Amino acid sequence: MRLHTKFLAAIVLLALAGGALAQKVDLKDTRLANGLRVITVEDHNAPVIAVNVTYNVGSRDERQGRTGFAHLFEHMMFQGSENVGKSEHFMLVYNNGGTMNGTTNEDRTNYFEALPANQIELALFLEADRMRSLAVTQDNLDNQRNAVQEERRIGLDNAAYGKSGEIQQELMYDNFAYKHSTIGSMTDLNAASVADVQAFFKTYYAPNNAVLTLVGDFKTPDALAIVKKYFGNIPRQADPPPVDMTEPEQKAERRTSVDDVLARLARVAIAYKTVPGNTADFYALQVLANILGSGSSSRLNQKLVREKEMVTTAGSFAQETRGVGGFYVTATPRPGMKTEAVEAAVYDEIARLQKEPIADWELQKAKNGARRNFINGLQSSLARANTIGIYAVYFGDPNLINTRIDKVNAVTKEDVQRVANKYLVQTNRTVVITVPKASGGRGMGSNPGMQQ
């Protein structure tokens, strides 16, 4: 499932030298009569195929009182369909030497398989059968509702720092689309009915609301014939309602603290509202995040971890979303170090970026890191299928896989300084301080300081 060694080496060498991909991904874009978008990429370097179905639905599509549906469906989609029994999807893929999974976030839900090339029909049959005839029953709903609630308990409610991220998201956003967590609330999950879930499935799990991506060892005409055989007669549904992702300008800092009985160290989490992904400012913010807090040579690591020994870890990243995204900075103070001092030190490093142009080597290192991460993420057929599907759903542009590095390369030192001054300002930030608590309950501090 890996790219040919010589091909990969050529990509890496040219990318690190400042160029784009050494070999373009040759895409074929086909639209079926029912609206299903099919993107095929032949790759005969290894006898494997990857299938990805990305649905244009995430937690941003949910309404108040009915959160967690998109993630619930990530589980429901493995509970059987007209011709596939409960959990049989797993068994058929694994018993034929494959791997599979599904993921959900705010902006999309995807399902994917990687199998030997001679099992392409199996993968397409499985995906088509559940798109056409998912078994939405009370038993399946109850079973998977319990599974999702347990996942929430383990990964969020009963995990150190788990609630802090959810609280920061709720505090940071005003628009409900991104304001609530993808996993949903216990109350909303309990309130979900079979009728609710059936309506959600009919609206969003339709061929005209999905992108099917195939990458691997096949001949495109043969693959498209199999796609049409299994997907072609799935009926189109009415287009889902558009999502309002507008976000009002933030006028003042928002701040709260979270008492956490599971945390052993405090944590400083700072978030700034930014821009949607695949924009010039996003790529500049991505480079800025690499300079500020990615890797041991980043400014936060050099200053706060090594020189001042104030924190055990510090980092930053630019989130890529379809709507207003975020630029996140986190730091974990050493025992005995005050969070106020750590927060001030972070702002000092941001101020330096705003006032002084970055060095040429910093810009080049940040670009190299962004390109390296991008290329490393495309080594397998499955990774390429997943990436293409996301680009097609997010931005309507599967060819972004061929042009993304050029967009990173176009970022200048002036761009980095400009976006630092534009977005990383006090009135645009949301700060959450996690405070270890030896005993008692966990909750928001007594002075949230929520300002609009």
How would you concisely characterize the structure shown here?
With 452 residues, this protein is an alpha+beta fold. It has 17 helices and 12 strands.
Describe this structure as you would to a colleague.
The protein contains 17 helices and twelve strands. The longest helix is centred in the N-terminal third of the chain and has 20 residues. Helix content is 44%, strand content 17%. By secondary structure, it is an alpha+beta fold. The strands form two sheets. A six-stranded mixed sheet has the order 1-2-6-3-5-4, with helices on both faces. It is globular and about 60 Å long. Strand 1 and strand 2 form a beta hairpin.
Query: For the residues shown, what is the average pLDDT?
Result: 90
Helix-strand pattern: HEEEHHEEHHHHHHEHEEHHEEHHHHHEE
The span between the termini is 50 Å
Total strand count, please?
12
Q: Which value, in Å, is the CA radius of gyration?
A: 23 Å
Unreliably modeled segments: 1-22, 440-452
> How much strand content do the residues show?
15-25%
**How do the strands of the widest beta sheet line up side by side?**
1-2-6-3-5-4
